[in-house]
## 1
Amino acid sequence: MAKVSINLATGSLQKEEIIVGIDLGTTNSLVAFINPDKNPQVINDAGKGVLVPSVVHFDQTGGITVGNEAKNYLITDPQNTIFSVKRLLGRSYADIENYKNLFSYKVIDDNTESLVKVKVGDRFYTPIELSGLILKELKERAEHALKTPVTRAVITVPAYFNDSQRQATRDAGKLAGLDVLRIVNEPTAASLAYGIGLNQEETKTIAVYDLGGGTFDVSILQIQNGIFEVLSTNGDTFLGGDDFDRAIFEYWVQQNNLNAAELAENRELTQELRLKAEEAKKSFSHQSIFNEKVGDIWCTIDRDTFEQLILAKVEQTINACTNALKDAGLTVEQIDEVVMVGGSTRTALVKRKVAEFFKRPVHDDINPDEVVALGAAIQADILAGNRKDILLLDVTALSLGIETMGGLMDVIIPRNSKVPTKAGRQYTTSVDGQVNMKISVYQGERDLVKENRKLAEFDLKGIPAMPAGLPKVDINFLLNADGILKVQAIELRSNTKQEVEVKPAYGITDEQVEQMLMDSITYAQDDVQQRMLIEARTEGEQMVYTAERFLEKNNAYLSIPEITETQKYIQALKDSLTSGDKDLILKKVDELNDYTRPFAERVMDMAISQAMKGKSIE
Ligand code: AMP
């Protein structure tokens, strides 16, 4: 076997291989690389286009398509066509409660705090698997276009993504067979594409304004010694170019006196008008009047009217910029550069308003759809050590984390993080009255802690006895410049504290680190599958626990048949736990949940009315 050496500065394997940069977007995704001329370039495989719609379609026979082809099914087969999966990544049902109606496919509410799933036919997909399918398509396109295997990538995420969303993105990469060298913030990548931050000496404050098809965000970044720090972010996850299209569409409905109710029935015509509206919007980049017909409906609009229609929306984005500045504690004058990202920043009014607000010309020379992926490719190139002018900072060679339910590794500081660094997460208890919590610290890339290296273990004692889920335990990892890791656990309600210090690099050789990295790549897909099975099992066990306690506590409110039937569903779920089939377990969770939901609500109402009795209302 060929010996592969490892770059300990980056924790990456050194092979003469291209590392790609991937922009995994809500609407579109794309991949870029550094070409032989040392310039970043987007990949257009076999002329299929640079932008790959982030859409996945499942057909009856189990066939999966991704991209443009899948997008065609959005109208003809909406239940089996998944779009906007980025909105679900790393999210629990409670997180998306307010906009669950947006999805035409089935998003599962299992009443727990676990991450959401999507039901397609008889199968349950996690957003990680769905994003994994999109990444796999991008990987394959890159391999086909570059005629070489692609196994390493840098993937971008919004600056506001939390830990769980970032981890989910890493896992999606793993599932696609990619070794994710680093997760990079989209605004950071966009700045790099403009060369901002490449000079180690410069200190700058920049604003990155990102207006896509359906989302808007603005980030204020500070760059110092080549390190990007996010000072603030603001935005609206439901504002974008789609709103501009809708404004034109509604204008035409009004101009042509179309009957809105009739139009709503005619999906094909609606869709045609929507597409025409988008076409009109885009045409204003090079003309000032649009005049076409759909059937016998005149679609006419000029640029001034368009600008009036969208003014309020654009001003909304400017308000967000004001808020972002305020949160960062800065004035407009303190912003050195403004970078434009996202297809909708091509709109002339948007450019004018943003430049006016920041009182300076904006960076808009690079294609705003491609700028993030191009920057990700530059970041990949830096990590590969190909840019001699850039000093690589000390990074952690292996991930650091703790053991959670089912023996899973929960990464707190991912590998390749710059040192010094600190990170933390909040945990809780899983059993009522639990007063101790065992904290086991591990190092490594595998999903099961038993495959990783244990660094330390301690008990956090003296947690006040409370129902499961109520105690709040903060676990903080602090890794200092000398490579010493301090792990601190604090129960916030009682202020109980415990900490240990270890040196992760102690007692491990470079060869062992290398082997651990190799193994993590070899077993990546199996590992993620296993993680998903364990997570499904843990979720199932929790559901059994909750349902049994519910029966115990509320049997007075339930009829005998209801109790026996619930017990049957609980038993079916229990039986499935040993099956090793995650879809079966999730199906049983879903069924038990569907069955008990109506009387869970009823019991809640009764409990409230009981509580109200005896209380007099003045
Ligand atoms: P993104 O989500 O970044 O891919 O942005 C896609 C959005 O950019 C869609 O709403 C497109 O309609 C919009 N877009 C693309 N080209 C133009 C253009 N020339 N003028 C205005 N909006 C555009």
Note: Residues 199-365 form a domain with the Nucleotidyltransferase; domain 5 fold (CATH 3.30.420.40).
## 2
Amino acid sequence: MTRSFFKNLFAFTIMISHLTICESQNFPKKNREQRIGQKADSVLRLMTLDEKIGQMNQYNGDWEATGPITNDGDKQNQIRMGMLGSMLNVTGVEHTRELQQMAMKTRLKIPLLFGQDIIHGYRTTFPIPLAEAASWDLDAIELSARIAATEAAAAGVHWTFAPMVDIARDPRWGRIMEGAGEDPYLGSLIAVARVKGFQGKGLGSTDALMACAKHFAAYGAATGGRDYNSVDMSLRMLWETYLPPFRAAEEAGVATFMNSFNDLNGIPATGNAYLQRDILKGRWKFKGFVVSDWGSVGEMIPHGYAKDNYEAAMEAVIAGCDMDMESRSYIKNLSKLVNDGKLSLGSINDAVKRILIKKFEMGLFDDPFRFCNKEREQQQWNNKDNLNAERQIAEKTIVLLRNENQILPLSRQTKTIALIGPFIKSVRDNLGFWSYIWPDDSARIISPWQGIQNKLGKESKLLYARGCNINDSSTSGFAEAVEVAKQADIVIMNVGEAADMSGEAKSRSNIHLPGVQEELIMAIQATGKPVIVMINAGRPLIFNWTADHVAAILYTWWLGTEAGDAMADVIFGDYNPSAKLPVSFPRSEGQIPVYYNHFNTGRPPKNDSDLNYVSAYIDLPNDPKFPFGYGLSYTSFSFSGIDLNKKSFRPGDSLTASITVTNTGKFDGKETVQLYIRDLVGSVVRPVKELKNFQQIFLRAGDSKKISFTITADMLRFYNNKLDYVFEPGDFMIFIGGNSKDVKESSFTLLK
Ligand code: BGC
């Protein structure tokens, strides 16, 4: 210990006490940024190289794992030695306090950051992100993230590894459940809603989590839909389809980014300088920090991109990855890399400063225990308002795919209802992947059985048969289920995927309804009773026979804690379904990838039966079973023709497209009016349709409303061959409708 150590410590103490007074949100943003930057610099100046490297190191807690665990030594001791900047999977006020106290025993008392995958709720589980995307309701999505952040922040968590903003066009990929579907425009709006929801009033509020846009980039395009797989795509496709939601999250002020497991055009994303340095920190001027994905620094070795961890750590830092999650490559190699002259101190300082800045912004230097408030944790633990909000959001995500003869909604007077299927009495499966297990789950989570029972009076009788298991070949329960169905006036079935059948490392080559569930539906349908099918899943499934035969289908995803009540609200008409698919549903795995915004090709088929040397299958239509944007209501809507206020306009000017929507059915209801545009001729080929805007309107039965969309040249931009973001004068088609397929159309010209 030298004199200069005490001198530094003194300076540090002064600096810390200074912080407590001034980190209020009231200072203008720029000044605040500047001051926090200076503070981070002053801490940085005090730090040894080892302490700096410690900040770039993140370990999993020993309690829960979301990846392959490495148990190598005493993590608590490493905290005490300042070898750790952050931990993941540690929650709870007591737990986080205990570890933070250890961090406070280090020389510089730099607080730890606690990160966690708060993907769709913490204590209250919300519908999975793909389901929420089906609501197209940005306020609801923001609210869901807000509540999740409030609950998690009250339990000591600082940082969520969400939102996942990966575009996914391949339902075999299990992680499609975590994103917003296939469309870059909708995906971008949802990315913003989630970032705003998680970060609330801003970092520094005790109910705000730092958000993390992941996985940068193109992870959703894994070849063959197989998780962690390679991605090879043109840069134009990357910019046009996969990057926009990341850009939107960055512009919305997301605190952090996570890179991804995949290689992109031969370079692992974690070691990809084009992505992290050139695009993110360069072109986009991102000020936050980048965390690796779990072990992804070390995984550059099996990728065949680094010889050993020494090289992997070097490549990752050079590429702009600031924090190493769980691969221990940084902690073991960075010091040597700097001493060997392979990495500059500047690159380490840059990474550490970014991390320190976030710790300052979170107010952790002021009070490292500000998220460890027992009272707040208790308050959020059983918050009824959060459960109510969850139920309302869940209702908005249920997609009505079919409703023959308006069989739904059911009357509460229905005498005998048979409830059949492996999910009718399920509890945990309603939460889906990336959800937390709490000891009182069985009492808290509402099963469909419970929800339907809650809705009905004593006069109604509910019968039950499981019928079959989720994913085996036994039909031994069919006979009982058929008998039960015969005794009922109506049958409600609940089938689908278990919570661990979509999610990370849950890719499936066969995405039909698992096991013998569709055979069970056939057997029940053969009784002649009206059959309503609810399908729970974390991805688009294939169920063609069901889609063509049963009376009604509700796609019920994984709806969260209040699942059963939300289902019952929709079945009995307390909520009129309004959700729209955020992703196309294929007819067969052979069509994948199938998405609405594809190119036309030089030989587009004229119709489904056109096989005359066209771009088509000889055994299947090209289009999906259910298109992007599709979803029915208990009422019906009609659309007038499109009215354009002019046929052409110049850049700088705009055009207004209007359409009158009428509720032609018997129920009040909500419609999502979708605007698509096609650029007919471009310097590069353009998709047959691109979503450009939408509006959700509520119409009473019989009412009409005129909806107007403004179209500007900026909405017509795309990445040309040089990757410039341009619009090109010429002719455009415009489409407006209630889904991407059934639309009214018109055309206009963008003049020079
Ligand atoms: C996932 C990330 C996640 C991380 C930490 C990884 O396996 O890909 O999305 O945030 O684990 O749980």
Note: Residues 289 and 355 are 6 Å apart (CA to CA).
## 3
Amino acid sequence: MGRDVFYITTPIYYPNDVPHIGHAYNAVATDFIARYHRLRGERVFHLTGTDEHGLKLQRAAEAAGMDPKTWVDEMEPRWREVWARLDIANDDYIRTTEPRHEAAVQQILQAVYDNGREDIYIGHYEGLYCVACEAYYTEDDLVRGNCPIHDRPVELLREENYFFRLSAYADRLLEYYEGTPSAIEPEVRRNEVLSLIQGGLQDFSISRTSFRWGVPLPWDPRHVCYVWFDALTNYITAAGYGSDPERFARLWPADIHLIGKDILRFHAVYWPAMLMAAGVEPPSQVWAHGYILVGGEKMSKTKLTGIHPFQLVDHFGVDSYRYYFMREIQFGQDGSFSWESMVDRHNADLANGLGNLASRVLAMLGSYFEGAVPEPTVEGAAADLPEVAAGAATRFQEHMEAVGLTPALGAVWDIVSRANRYLVEKEPWALAKDEERRGEVASILYAAAETLRILAVLISPIMPSAAGRLWEQLGMGDPLAAQRLPKAAGWGQLAPGTKTVKGESLFPRLDS
Ligand code: ME8
């Protein structure tokens, strides 16, 4: 059996603190893509989890007066509760402290160690180290003497380490990326990786003897595996590497590793080289998004600018939260979060846009047709709505296939705007005063309700909860989860006679 599952991953997050809206940005984007692929009728495997080993975690535990395992056991649920509240529908959740993962890490290490090319060798390492990144830097990398990512002082460390011979993989990596241009997106990140490889690659250290909080190397248990061999391997652990070859053949290589650009080097240089060394195919695509900025800087825990997602969800609701970040910030670029822009987005696109469209149409169906969807009898009454909806649904799918998350939502909102304008042009509320024009009113409201049905389907990957409520208000019998694109976006599937209910407003207006 070959590959028959769409496999998408988030990075595994460090649970040394609670999530902030930067982590949630990555989680929501991954979930949006995964839900879209389910809507297309594909089998999907969406993986997320926590990265629980390493010095950073050990130190956080020490600071809290706990042993590392007790500490991560306590922190990890605080990540899961956020994903649950944000409607993240992951199919698996991996913790690097699980036995299945420790077994897979030992397997890949042993496979590389035994590959006959001495890709793992012992040496000494001395370097400038950022504990927050869990990475060494050269003098040139530093900004004002500090870590370029965390803007914190680095430490001089020296120890006996095993190394991975990354330097031997430059040519193979270049060859691979030249032959597979889609393997790194967006293009600016691809170019960044290519010039990094062309600039020459240095071997990196993969083990430590200075502490115990990690997976022991199978051939030399005095050492524990350090960071990237442990963390990156999660993606193949969960796919059945070394434990379930049949499952592994169906899932691997992953379709998309969706990451932030801070960990591009590890995913697009270290990881494929590690896999090549172990005789495993590299992932199909690494997609690196930008940063959520607050006050012009990357939101981070160490800088105390972290905003917890619940601080926003409590006020805006989960649907508005998910929508805002995907729509407001051009996916792939950095973007600033601000409370004001979130209120504006909510009111313009959701309360006045989609919410208003739904409440007007459902209210008129209630007043004029006792809630029942009327039969459309007047030809041409739908104007260009069917074409607008069909065109936008096609563009939505094209953008989603290319991970163009922001323009994909733009396409859906073209339908919302057109439908609201359509009602203003047709004025069914005025026509309803004239009994002779009832057929026209019926046909206009049919077209508007059918547009809402299509909108409910198209917004379901980004706003699953609001889509479900709209679907119910429209009185649809088949479950929303059973709808499939492109078929469900086809015009004319709303059956006359369907009993709608006005229900609660989808997106109440918020004060600024
Ligand atoms: O790096 N804007 O974990 P992590 C956008 N454990 N995305 C952000 C962000 C921001 N301000 N801050 C964080 C690690 N992220 C490793 C990964 S993977 C095998 C191991 C996102 O908790 C971004 O995607 O520090 C980042 O890469 C991810 O959170 C994980 O951050």
Note: Residues 339-369 form the longest helix (31 residues).
